[in-house]
Amino acid sequence: MSIAVYPGSFDPITCGHLDIIRRGSVLFDEVIIAVLNNSSKNPLFSAEERVRLIEKSTADLPNCRAVYFDGLLVDFVTKLGANVVIKGLRAISDFEYEFQMALLNKNLNPDIETLFMVTNANHSYISSSVVKEIANLGGDFADLVPKEIFNDVKQKIEKGR
Ligand code: PNS
Question: How many distinct structural domains can be found in the chain?
């Protein structure tokens, strides 16, 4: 059974993330979306909320599930019985950081492969940060996040005002 792990902060999940998850779910028997529970980043949504938003967005993908994790990614991947990490690349600017991460992870555990998937051109400009910025400033972000979670993001932003 082929299992891939798609890690990230997902604060919140965007249409770009969902596109990678969908395409990954065709390539692997199971895709586990691993949400980093990193309090130092001061996320908008708690790790539990981010997992829930991913579950809502991927309800039609039976071979995908979301979990949160702490610690080293490679250790978590091993614990899940997986050996592939999926990363999405939006632009050349992503590559430098992701290349460093892939080499560091390879050094930590040579059995784990990083698979880079190129983001759909329609989503190349989307990030969780821009979603939050546009939502905060009252702009329309309906095309940037999965429709299932649009109201959750809207409400969270309004609550924080
Ligand atoms: O969505 P993000 O914030 O770009 O995701 C980054 C993530 C979660 C993939 C990365 O920070 C990560 O793997 N963190 C876990 C700690 C770790 O293993 N770091 C890499 C080795 S130096």
Answer: 1
Query: What is the chain's alpha carbon radius of gyration, rounded to the nearest angstrom?
Result: 15
Instruction: State which amino acid sits at residue 123.
Output: H
Q: Which residues line ligand 1 (CB under 6 A)?
A: 7-9, 36, 72-73, 101, 104-105
Q: Structural domain of residue 98, as residue ranges?
A: 3-160
Q: How far apart are CA 5 and CA 66, in angstroms?
A: 10
- State in Å: Cα 6 to ligand 1 middle: 11
Q: What is the CATH number of the domain that holds 101?
A: 3.40.50.620
pTM for this predicted structure: 0.97
| Closest residue to atom 17 of ligand 1, CA basis | 72
Using one digit for the tens of pLDDT, what is the confidence trace for 74-112? 999 999 999 999 999 998 889 999 999 999 999 999 999
